[in-house]
Amino acid sequence: MAVRELVRLLEVPSAARPPLRKRLRAMAEEGALVRVRGRYSAPGSLSIYQGVFRGHAQGYGFVAPSRDEGDEKSLDIMIKKTRTRGAMDGDTVSARVEKVHPDGRREGSVLDVVERAHVTLVGRLCVEGRSAWVEPQGERIPHLVVLDAKERREARRGEWVEAEITRYPTQKEPARGRILRSFGYPEDPAAEGRMVLAKHGIREEFPQKVLDEEARLSPPGEDDPFPEGVEDLRDLCAFTVDPFDARDRDDAVSIEKLKSGGCRLGVHIADVGHYVKGGGAIDKEARDRGTSVYLPDRAVPMLPPRLTGEVCSLREGAVRRTLSVFIDFDRYGNQTAMRLTFARIRSRASLTYRGAAAVLEGGEIAQKEEAESARALEEPLRELAALADKLFAGRMRRGSLDFDLPEAQVLLDEEGMPKGVARAPRTSAHRLIEECMLAANRAVAEYLAEAGGASVFRVHEAPDEENLEGLRAILSRLGLKAPRIEALKRPGGLQEVFDAVRGSDVERYVNLAALRSMKLARYEAAPALHFGLGFERYTHITSPIRRYADLCVHRRLARLMRGDGGKPHAKPLAALCHDISERDRAAEAASREMVDFMKALFMRDKIGERFRGHVSGVANFGIFVELEDMYVEGMVPLEFMTDDYYAFIPEEHAVYGRRTGRRFRLGDPVTVRVEGVDLASRRVTFQLMAGGTRELVGDAAESRRASLTDRRRPEGKKPQAPRRRKRGKAAPRRGRRR
Q: Which contiguous run of DSSP H or E holds residue 71?
């Protein structure tokens, strides 16, 4: 119904009509109503749903309804290319279900685009004669943006550009727009970095009003008086441990022995909340950014540069404000007490992970200027390492997951070009600091939960039963014990699986399959289980310089420490948690895309070379292979595998040859040759040279081939013998018979 019809039926007086319109719009945003071209309906009354449209490169897409009672995985509505009404990936749309298949799949059409996700698009400028258009870089957006001649500005053909959309696409007309800026030509890492950031909505420059507000901030001086409630901890032996190329230092650690035989861990976090006040220009900018973004060749900070690198950073020998968390442990590593305080500390040293690990492992310290300070801190480092071992053992008993999947690190030369891809280092110092931060985050989460009220918590739900059933099926096929679903859904259930395959030839396969069964962690306004860590409550407080979530928790703690018992409203905080979760994912996507580009650029000079690797993914169009020594992933298209006809078995994460029984499964070792590199799509293509197994022979192979044949045969139909074509006397055979 249109608003005017509602006004007439409900006899709404003139003065109440504007609030009615406002309320209807709000209900549509909440999903209580669905708006379709200016009219409103109840969700489900016309099989109309509101949700996010997810596009595909071929033009079709899916709508995931935002409100429904059923299973989310069966609710997606498939939208054919001719029924999208110009919707683009990420748009909020109203869609109607028009057909339901016997297996539950649903088809429909987009009725209205409620909210556009893209004001601008990033892509490559194409010019042909007098025509010009922008071809979007994202594969999920197949719509071209047509430009008028005067809207090209000074951009040149082939450059990455950002175009503002002035008219959105329809079924009959393409999108139109104008160029805002150009980034440079593809294959240039600097241009690619600027393009990737713009694509994911990440700004590098800070507005002038933010810089003006930053200029008025300064760290405390040595002789500045201490405000009420701020402790003097300048004589405490606190120090930082960070990567060699750390852009900010937002946490320090300390340890003290207790008379009871236990110890007191101190985690000292930069007091960003003292400088960044809610509602200010810096705060609004930080909220929009949500997190710092780290690319191989640059960092885009959440806070302006001086605040990040000087005012808040816990630099060696400098006095800085902190929020300090002191946790007492007994001799067995069990927490006995926790105390929060605002303080000023003076960091004794700025150690690197390499330097701290060298002290703990008896190696040589590469940086001479670090050697003296690192050796001077050997005793507290060893005490912290002993505590970290106890904390780790306790986490494992409580159900934390611990499995080894290496991360790639791109090595750059002085000109910013990739010179190698190596495994990211993982030393004893990394584990030490990680355990300290986990302990502080968990202790504060318990404190917040006991205080009551909404806050920002880190939540990681248990995997879906459907995914766990798939994992159980894989374990059964491998001849391994498959725990019950109830066991796998509890913290620690998966760790028993990891322990059972540790050191075996199927370890990587099982680890990857288990990882694919898990959900993504996110921020929520209420405490809940963190499945991966095995903690009933968990939050983030240790990185307020680079995560807005941590800054929000600091502000909540400050109010509680002042004795303010007021509880925040849950609804706006839940919306904030959703926003910063989305920004966190955007930052990860930008970082991953730039790493993939650097890997592809590195492999461009290695076409024709052979490498060993393992199968890291399987799809119906090919197998993905990650190289062992360089952690570069590429794909072997099934069309390149000409020795057999390969069928995709999704529940086994494998492809099988129908004739030979040759199998390629997640984690299997293979040898490949680099066949090609496409920098625009960040893809490396391999040719398979060796690998796979032929474990299915005799009756087993015949059974497998029959199973694969049944997959393609319609139900109720028996296979028919091929008919021999009759040949007339006037139709002689041509060529040799093969």
A: none
Rounded CA-CA distance 502/510 in Å is 10
Confidence band of 730 (pLDDT split at 50, 70, 90): very low
Of 609, 654, 653, the C-alpha closest to 632 is 609
Look up residue 171 and give its amino acid: Q
Residue type, 118: H
Our measurement of the distance from residue 569's CA atom to the centroid of its chain's CA atoms, rounded to an integer in Å, reads 28
pLDDT band at 719 (very low <50, low <70, confident <90, very high): very low
Strand ranges (E), 56-115: 61-65, 77-79, 92-100, 106-115
> What distance in Å separates the CA atoms of residue 549 and residue 557, rounded to the nearest whole number?
13
Question: What is the DSSP-derived secondary structure letter of residue 470?
Answer: H
Q: What whole-number percentage of the chain has pLDDT above 70?
A: 92
Q: State the CB neighbour count (10 A cutoff) for residue 311.
A: 21
Edge-to-edge order in the sheet of strand 335-346: 230-233, 335-346, 319-329, 263-270, 251-257
Q: Using one digit for the tens of pLDDT, what is the confidence trace for 417-443?
A: 999 998 888 889 999 999 999 999 999
Q: Compute the CA torsion angle 312, 318, 324, 326 (nearest 10 deg).
A: 150
Question: Given pLDDT bands bounded at 50, 70 and 90, which one contains residue 338?
Answer: very high
Q: Are strands 350-352 and 240-242 parallel, antiparallel or unpaired?
A: parallel
Task: Answer for the pair 399, 393: CB distance below 8 angstroms, yes or no.
Answer: no
Segment 61-80 shows an average pLDDT of 71
CB 219 within 8 A of CB 320: yes
The secondary element (H helix, E strand) that includes residue 157 is: none
State the pLDDT confidence band at 695, using cuts at 50, 70 and 90: low
Closest by alpha carbon to 93, among 106, 104, 105, 79?
Answer: 79
The pair of structure tokens assigned to 340 is 């929060």
Over 50: is that where the pLDDT of 72 sits?
A: no
Task: Report the relative pairing of strands 230-233 and 335-346 from DSSP bridges.
Answer: parallel
Q: Which amino acid is at 160?
A: W
Non-local CB neighbours of 597 within 8 Å, separated by 6+ positions: 189, 192, 196, 679, 682
Q: Secondary structure of the chain: what % helix, strand, coil (to 5)? A: 35, 30, 40
pLDDT of residue 664: 92
**Structure token pair of residue 238:** 């606190």
How buried is 673 (Cβ within 10 angstroms: 0-12 exposed, 13-18 middle, 19+ buried)? middle
- Bridge partners (DSSP) listed for residue 64: 52
Contact 618, 655 (CB under 8 A): yes
Residue 597 scores a pLDDT above 80? yes
Q: Which residues share a beta bridge with 617?
A: 624
**466-521 per-position pLDDT tens digit:** 889 888 888 887 788 888 998 898 878 888 888 888 888 778 778 888 888 899 99
Q: Residue for token digits 């749903």?
A: 49
Query: Are residues 183 and 162 in contact, defined by beta-carbon separation less than 8 angstroms?
Result: yes
Pair 239, 309: CB distance under 8 Å: no
In DSSP terms, 270 is beta-bridged to 322
Helical pair 281-289 and 570-603, crossing angle rounded to 10 deg: 60
Q: In which residue are the tokens 């406002």 written?
A: 22
* pLDDT tens track for 217-256: 999 998 899 999 999 999 999 999 998 888 789 999 999 9
Q: What is the pLDDT of residue 566?
A: 84
The Cα–Cα gap between 436 and 630 comes to 31
Q: Are strands 61-65 and 48-55 parallel, antiparallel or unpaired?
A: antiparallel
Q: Which amino acid does the sequence have at 138?
A: G
Report d(CA 538, CA 439) in Å as an integer: 10
Burial of 42 (0-12, 13-18, 19+ CB in 10 A): exposed
Taken in order 222, 227, 233, 238, the sign of the CA dihedral is negative
The percentage of residues in the chain with a pLDDT greater than 90, rounded to a whole number, is 58
| CA atoms of 284 and 276, how far apart (whole Å) | 10
Residues 6 or more apart from 140 whose CB is under 8 A from it? 54, 55, 56, 57, 89
> 375, 433, 376: which is closest to 246 by C-alpha?
433
The amino acid at 656: Y
